[in-house]
Specification:
The complex is a heterotrimer of chains A (296), B (291) and C (372). Chain A has 296 residues and is an all-alpha fold. In chain A, 73% of the residues lie in helices and 1% in strands. The chains are: A mainly alpha (296), B mainly alpha (291), C alpha+beta (372). Chains in contact: A-B, A-C, B-C.
């Protein structure tokens, strides 16, 4: 028995080693870093222990900008993408011919490289000396004024970022919701039809409650994902996000760690801990709310 | 008789409503499909327009009459796109292979072997699932830098060879295999390792394939960690490569060549997806998240 | 409300893409169900019973033919305008709603003048609940109820809007044996009390025989026989119907008609005046055997099962299709278990002849040999 126990741990050894080194130790370390004031990464020395790093980060205009951007992004993209995914999945599950084709097309953004396709979006939205760009051309057709969405006003940049984020996250949500809808038994719909239930009522009283666990799952993971968004912004606005006023919290962490303003692991850690606290709080609130409204 | 006309009126109204609803649904779905496909169309279109033709279009054209492959040649010669591809390929294959070994062994231990502290260890593993990557990446960056592994494959690969989630997924699958098979193997004098290799892995191949597909997608698209850990072009992956191309590659305005690079980078995963459509979608709905 | 089907046909495109052949689930149904009757649609699984039910309630559209409710042609009418109540095989109760909410659901769909006041709705729901005797459970969720209770809720939900026709799809198949007996009585009682024309689908002949006013026996999309259960049992039109009804099932033997007599093996067993000469299928109900020491049917005794009220004799006969035939006789009868053979005479009204080719019943009045 003893010998077998020893063997079992041997099987676990690689996983424990890697996880310990790259997950558990860093997890503890990040809190240590965030508390060490004036840490110098070259000499690996620090002055003392205290909340100064947090205070610095919270007073940093770049961080505040990043928090603002992130919150706007979350508040817009999570409801929009969930609602849109729900509409599309409802449409998808109500048709038969061509359904597979549509499903395949809708899933394409999931398997694309965010950075690469972001570049295409940038070109579509960008206004340069040579061309107004595709989107502005369409705006022009409808009699709108042209705007530079990439280097122009903040709201325009925010719009592109939200648009691209929704475009990127939708495939996953559509996939989950379509399979959730497919798992609702046809008999429920038949029963509702025989009773003359209107489509709206069928949707609100039958479909929605039955897929509510999946919707709640999507909202929770959507919040977490949107709070951590970063590469979408890089794809559209380049690596110097602070200059573009389009940084996100995660972007701020990385910039503090490495990049033009980098070399400050303590500030990066403090920002990461703050992000973690925000995400944790929101997730808990989400869970509490969904407990009351979700039928399992 | 009047009753009968009333009934046929109801019939007609119901039919019209149904047809209207169907057409509207198809219209909306097609609209979204176009919105999804348009960027892909645009990047392919731009990648075959010649540099001069592209720049001469103040109002972008929706088609081109003289497609050229010159941009693809440029993409692979002017910048080292080929090198990025090779790096990404090595990174993806090695990471996925190492991860498979690590998670299979761990999942086997949790699912099949009994040892003291197993349940506690498994709970701790599961707790690790909740830790966001952003929190641990800072120290990992420092660790890899301290070990002098920046700009090496080891530095790129090591932090991403374990995944608690995949261990969990695989353990659940292993646990579904009936105990009798294990006892039968024991009676025949099969060693644990041989049982894992000859019985469990073949039975659970679908799940392993799912894990591989998800990991390959993840590796191919990974950007943040490679960006932190590489600053020499020789070790760039495609994501970093494309960012590099964008900022100082072809000279900012050679958009057709950039688009050629984007097409080249996007193609492998799209082909993989179209080949294994069912498997990919099933795998993602079981365990994938993005955004 | 009587229901009339006229040449009703439903064909599905074949699953197999290569062959263009269609699957005909319902083939040319023409019959009338009188007002207020409880009718059983009976047949083996996959014979198109459920399709027929779905056509009647409007969930599926027929390929051709017509459906009338009373005088109204409802063939193309959407289900909600037909005024039918349907109880699903798995009940299809909304799991997130309580029993009361489930029963109220159809009423809340009504619009305009048809929509009752809130109090009226609650009163109707209570009434339906009382009818099926589930009042104590009104505030529970379906998952907190037993199968039988869920079944009653489903019936209450179907009845609450006072449908013109009540349809039940395999209503008892998800219940255990004891509940099944109880519930089928319940369905009969509810149907009597409401007087609503009721059609139910089942593959269990005993279920259909026990409670219906009329059964419709189906096979492979076609109606084989319609009639009161006892009448169909006593006078089957073909071998399939004879085999499908009755438990234990009818014994099938190969016989021969020669000189106006029915022969099993070489023994003449019954007189068959006017029957065409040649080989025939002979169906003998288990209760059609009489133990007679000098009976013409000589069988090898295999086993005797005593089952209280009566006794089941298993015996082999060379003409029999199955290894043994089963005869049910009074438990008072004396039988020597040690003896190798057992001899029977046959009750002529429990024996049917069927054509070897078409399996259709040969219309002939059989007479006992002993009367001579």
């Amino acid at each position: 028995m003893e010998q077998r126990s020893w063997k079992a741990w041997l099987y676990l050894l690689p996983a424990i080693l890697f996880l310990g080194l790259f997950m558990v130790y860093p997890l503890i370390d990040v809190f240590v870093y965030s508390a060490e004031e004036g840490y110098n990464s070259a000499s690996q020395t620090y002055f003392g222990v205290g909340p100064y790093n947090f205070s610095y980060v919270l007073h940093d205009a770049y961080f505040l900008q990043a928090v603002k951007n992130t919150f706007i992004l979350v508040i817009i993209t999570v409801p929009v993408s969930t609602a849109l995914a729900l509409l599309i999945s409802l449409g998808l599950s109500s048709i038969k011919p061509l359904r597979n084709l549509y499903q395949t097309v809708y899933f394409l953004p999931y398997v694309t490289n965010t950075l690469a396709v972001g570049l295409v979006f940038m070109i579509l939205f960008k206004k340069t000396a040579y061309t107004d760009g595709m989107v502005n051309l369409i705006l022009h057709w409808f009699g709108g004024n042209t705007v530079d969405f990439i280097d122009g006003p903040h709201w325009a940049k925010m719009f592109v970022l939200c648009f691209y984020t929704v475009w990127v996250v939708l495939p996953f949500k559509i996939l989950i919701l379509t399979s959730a809808l497919a798992s609702v038994k046809q008999d429920y719909y038949n029963a509702a039809r025989i009773d003359g239930t209107s489509s709206l009522r069928t949707f609100t009283r039958i479909t929605l409650p039955m897929i509510s666990p999946m919707i709640s799952y999507l909202i929770i993971t959507g919040f977490i994902g949107a709070f951590k968004s970063y590469s979408d912004a890089v794809a559209l606005f380049g690596t110097d996000l602070n200059a573009a006023e389009m940084n996100t919290i995660v972007g701020y962490v990385y910039d503090m760690l490495y990049g033009n303003s980098g070399g400050w692991p303590s500030y990066a850690s403090a920002a990461a801990v703050i992000l973690f606290a925000i995400v944790l709080t929101i997730t808990c609130v989400n869970l509490l709310v969904s407990k009351r409204h979700v039928y399992y | 008789m009047s009753n009968q006309t009333e009934l046929s009126q109801i019939e007609r109204a119901a039919r019209t409503r149904r047809i209207l609803k169907k057409s509207f649904t198809y219209l909306m779905l097609t609209l979204w499909a176009l919105l999804v496909l348009f960027p892909f169309y645009w990047m392919i279109l731009s990648s075959v327009k010649s540099y001069s033709a592209y720049n001469a279009e103040y109002i972008p054209k929706f088609f081109t009459l003289s497609p050229t492959l010159q941009n693809y040649v440029d993409a692979f010669t002017t910048v080292s796109l080929g090198k990025y591809f090779l790096n990404t390929l090595i990174f993806t294959v090695v990471t996925t292979a190492l991860m498979l070994i690590v998670i299979t062994l761990a999942a086997f231990a949790f699912a099949r072997l009994s040892f003291r502290g197993r349940d506690l260890a498994f709970s701790l593993f599961l707790a690790l699932m909740m830790i966001p990557n952003e929190l641990v990446i800072i120290t990992n960056f420092v660790t890899i830098t301290d070990w002098g592994l920046r700009n090496t494959f080891a530095g790129l690969i090591l932090p991403s060879v374990t995944s608690v989630f995949y261990i969990y997924l695989l353990r659940e699958n292993f646990a579904q295999v009936p105990d009798e098979l294990y006892y039968a193997a024991k009676v025949d004098g099969t060693s644990d390792f041989k049982y894992l290799w000859k019985v469990l892995i073949p039975i659970c191949r679908p799940t392993l394939i799912t894990v591989v597909i998800l990991k390959v997608i993840e590796c191919w698209n990974s950007y943040v960690w490679p960006r932190l850990i590489t600053d020499r072009e020789a070790r760039f992956l495609v994501s970093n490569g494309i960012q590099e191309i964008r900022e100082n590659g072809f000279g900012r305005e050679n958009i057709p060549a950039m688009m050629a690079a984007v097409v080249a980078i996007s193609l492998p995963l799209i082909v993989l997806f179209l080949l294994f459509r069912k498997k990919v979608m099933e795998g993602v709905s079981r365990g994938g998240t993005k955004g | 409300m009587n229901v009339t089907l006229e040449h009703l046909t439903k064909a599905f495109p074949s699953q197999d893409r290569k062959s263009k052949q269609e699957v005909i689930a319902v083939n040319d149904f023409t019959f009338e169900i009188p007002d207020g009757e409880l009718v059983g649609l009976l047949g083996p699984s996959g014979c198109g019973k459920s399709t027929a039910l779905y056509l009647i309630c409007g969930l599926q559209k027929p390929t051709s033919g017509k459906i009338f409710f009373g005088e109204d042609d409802v063939t193309d009418l959407p289900p909600e305008n037909r005024g039918v109540g349907l109880v699903f095989q798995n009940y299809a109760l909304y799991p997130h709603l309580t029993v009361r909410q489930n029963i109220l659901f159809p009423l809340q769909n009504l619009k305009g003048e048809a929509r009752p006041s809130k109090e009226e709705m609650l009163r109707k729901a209570d009434e339906a609940a009382r009818l099926v005797q589930i009042e104590p459970y009104m505030d529970r969720k379906p998952s907190q109820l037993s199968g039988g209770q869920q079944q009653r809720v489903a019936i209450a939900r179907a009845l609450v809007k006072t449908p013109r026709i009540l349809l039940l799809d395999e209503p008892l198949s998800n219940l255990d044996a004891r509940l099944r007996l109880q519930t089928r009585e319940e369905i009969r009682r509810i149907q009597r009390e409401t007087g609503v024309t009721t059609i139910f689908v089942t593959h269990d002949q005993e279920e259909a025989m026990s409670i219906t006013d009329r059964i419709i026996v189906m096979k492979e999309g076609s109606v084989h026989q319609i009639g009161a259960p006892q009448q169909v049992y006593d006078d089957p039109v073909n071998l399939f119907v004879a085999k499908f009804l009755g438990n234990p099932p009818i014994n099938v033997l190969t016989g021969r008609v020669a000189g106006g007599r029915l022969l099993l093996g070489d023994q003449p067993v019954l007189e068959a005046p006017g029957a065409p000469e040649g080989e025939v299928w002979v169906g003998i109900r288990p209760e059609g055997f009489r133990l007679r020491p000098d009976g013409p049917l000589v069988c090898t005794l295999r086993a005797v099962e005593v089952m209280g009220r009566d006794m089941s004799v298993l015996a082999a006969h060379p003409a029999c299709e199955t290894p043994t035939l089963r005869a049910i006789i009074d438990s008072d009868s004396r039988i020597d278990r040690e003896s190798q053979t057992v001899r029977f005479s046959l009750r002529p009204n429990k024996v049917f002849l069927f054509s070897k080719e078409t399996e259709a019943r040969i219309p002939v009045t059989l007479r006992g040999e002993e009367g001579k």
